[in-house]
Each structure stands twice: as structure tokens, then as C-alpha cells.
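Priority: medium. Attachment 1 of 2:
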């Protein structure tokens, strides 16, 4: 007889092994339970050498995956009609009627204009994806900002000015500590601490702000020897503890410890040992100990979300980022806290994770 199974395709054995059990034991009450194996099969289908079968089966399987996932896309507006060139208010809603975690990667509307935007950190789940966002903005000549709002803390702006004016000398050694705490209930939220939704754990979700400030003050990191770990305190896919040895392009050396295992949570610290002073940044506070005995300090009541409440921080820095972005955008000025300026910290985080997996020093 005629072979109508997947085995008629050279690469079909593995695909059939994934799809046949779904066909024979389809769960009509919870169709999305089959998504993991369907996605694995789709990845294999995309590797089929024969173009005819690859295109045909990819389309069929993609449609089936969409149906099984219960996806529904709705474009809603309160206007019944509009003329070409007219501006309308609309919302785009993606309904995922299933129990699986689904992340929206990108929305493309044919003929639509890409608008300037400002997004929350991280820019994306990893450096490669973040780079694509930046390139897309450049290709459309559209500014994209990002909420790395800790750059707008008064203590950081003052310290950056001191460094730029060489008033504290050259940075020699750097110590970064982020001894934060999160309850397990924080990670029990769907998708929290997963690579699929968050892109990782403590590094990209909590430490990213402090690492971004470190790079702003000390310049790029050239090499890193990193370690990531999931402690017994939490149940999550990614890491809740990380450490790293840092080799800066300037020649400075540094250490990093980032954690959500330090109950009840303490302020993050950056210590810069410079040729003319030692600097201590503790949360939003700043102290500068000059070698000549002079001490300068700036203390505030602002919190940075180090404890069990991740929203315990000042909204003022966010507001400052929005105000600055709008001013620079409307005046056609270069966006200071741009998506492109967020790439170094994402590249560093990727390098720390990569180093941990390889168990060796890597170039950033």
C-alpha cells in the first residue's frame, strides 16, 4: 500500500514518535497539555531538507498548535470606520485559553507604522533578542527607550559627575553585593523565575539595575568567570544566587554577588576603590571617603525593593526617565537611556550565565 506516515520522510521517525501518541491519546479536556511535544515536533519539521514537505507540514502543524493553544487575537477600536492616514485608538489583545505559559515575542501589522516606545527592563530575555529590538528600531529610525531608572538616582548622577571630572581618581577594584530576599510566593507566580518568560533569575530580574550602574560608572567588562546556582530556599527554574569575578577593560578588577536568598533583604552595595577616594553606594545612599580625610555623603529615605516587597521603591526615578525620554524625543535629541545603551548589561548577564555553564572564564 501507499505509505502515508511520517516515515516516508527521511527525518520523519523522530517526528512520528512525538505526534503518534498525541493522535492516539488526545486530551480533549486539556488540549494544551500536548503543546510541549507539538513544539518539539515543529522544531524538527523546520529542519526537514525537502522544501515541499517542510513548507507544507510546517503550515499544518503551526495551525494545529495555534488551535490546541486556544489562541485568539482581537484588534479592538471604538471607531466603526476610518479614512487612510487618520489616527485611531485601538487595542490588540491576545487571548491564550489554556493552562500553559505563553509569551508574546512580537506583533507585526502589515502596513502599520512602528512608533517610538519606552519599555521596562530587561529589554529582552537575552542579548540576541535585545540586539534585534535595537536593530529594528534603527531600521525604522524610531527611538526606543528602556526603564533603567536607577541611573536617575541623585547619588548616581553625582558620582558619575565626580568620576567624569577625575575628582576621585581611577577605579582600581570594584565590589558589588546584592543581598536581596524574595519569598517563595514571589516565584510561585506563573512564569516567575523561568527562562521562557523572565529570561532567567536574580541576574536579569533583580541585579540588572545594579550591574547597569556598575557599567555606567566603571566602563565595560572584558572577561568574566561566573557562577549561577539555585539554592534550597526556593523552587524556580533559573538561579536565585550568582557570583562572578570581573575583569574590566580599564584594567580594574571586581567581584559580584547577587542573591534573593539573604533574608530579610539588605540594601545593594557598590564599592569603588579609587586612587583618590573610596566610594560606597548603599541602596540610594552615597558616601565618598577621600584619602585626604574629607567625607562627602548623600542620604535619602528611598528604598530599592531589596526585601520581600518587590514594589518597595521610589516612583520618582521612573517619572524622571519618562520626562527625559519625552523631552529628548520631542526635541529630536539623542535618547540617553536608550535600548542600545541597555545592551552592555544584557551582554554581561549572558556572559556570566555562559561562563557558569562552561565552568571557565569567558570573554564578554
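Attachment 2 of 2:
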Amino acid at each position: 500500500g501507499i505509505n502515508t506516515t511520517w516515515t516516508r520522510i527521511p527525518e520523519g521517525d523522530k517526528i512520528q514518535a512525538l505526534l503518534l501518541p498525541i493522535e492516539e491519546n488526545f486530551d480533549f479536556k486539556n488540549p494544551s497539555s500536548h503543546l510541549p511535544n507539538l513544539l518539539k515536533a515543529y522544531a524538527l519539521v523546520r529542519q526537514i531538507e525537502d522544501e515541499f514537505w517542510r513548507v507544507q507540514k510546517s503550515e499544518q502543524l503551526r495551525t494545529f498548535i495555534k488551535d490546541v493553544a486556544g489562541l485568539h487575537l482581537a484588534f479592538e477600536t471604538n471607531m466603526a470606520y476610518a479614512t487612510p492616514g487618520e489616527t485611531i485608538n485601538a487595542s490588540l489583545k491576545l487571548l491564550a485559553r489554556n493552562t500553559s505559559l505563553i509569551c508574546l515575542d512580537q506583533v507585526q501589522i502589515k502596513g502599520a507604522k512602528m512608533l517610538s516606545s519606552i519599555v521596562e527592563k530587561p529589554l529582552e530575555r537575552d542579548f540576541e533578542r535585545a540586539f534585534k529590538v535595537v536593530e529594528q528600531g534603527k531600521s525604522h529610525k524610531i527611538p526606543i527607550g528602556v526603564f533603567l531608572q536607577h541611573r536617575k538616582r541623585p547619588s548616581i548622577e553625582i558620582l558619575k559627575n565626580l568620576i567624569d571630572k577625575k575628582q576621585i581618581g581611577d577605579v582600581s577594584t570594584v565590589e558589588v553585593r546584592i543581598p536581596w530576599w524574595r519569598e517563595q510566593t514571589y516565584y510561585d507566580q506563573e512564569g516567575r523565575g523561568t527562562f521562557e518568560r523572565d529570561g532567567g533569575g536574580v541576574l536579569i530580574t533583580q541585579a540588572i539595575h545594579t550591574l547597569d550602574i556598575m557599567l555606567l560608572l566603571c566602563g565595560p567588562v572584558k572577561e568574566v568567570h561566573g557562577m549561577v546556582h539555585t539554592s534550597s530556599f526556593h523552587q524556580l527554574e533559573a538561579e536565585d544566587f550568582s557570583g562572578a569575578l570581573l575583569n574590566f577593560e580599564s584594567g580594574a578588577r571586581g567581584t559580584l554577588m547577587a542573591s534573593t536568598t539573604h533574608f530579610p533583604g539588605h540594601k545593594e552595595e557598590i564599592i569603588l576603590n579609587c586612587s583618590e577616594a573610596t566610594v560606597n553606594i548603599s541602596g540610594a545612599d552615597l558616601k565618598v571617603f577621600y584619602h585626604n580625610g574629607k567625607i562627602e555623603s548623600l542620604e535619602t529615605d528611598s528604598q530599592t525593593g531589596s526585601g520581600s516587597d518587590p514594589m518597595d521603591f521610589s516612583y520618582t526615578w521612573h517619572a524622571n526617565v519618562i520626562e527625559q525620554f519625552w523631552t529628548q524625543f520631542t526635541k529630536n535629541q539623542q535618547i540617553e537611556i536608550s535600548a542600545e545603551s541597555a545592551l552592555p548589561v544584557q551582554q554581561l548577564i549572558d556572559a556570566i550565565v555562559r561562563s557558569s555553564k562552561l565552568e571557565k572564564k569567558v570573554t564578554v
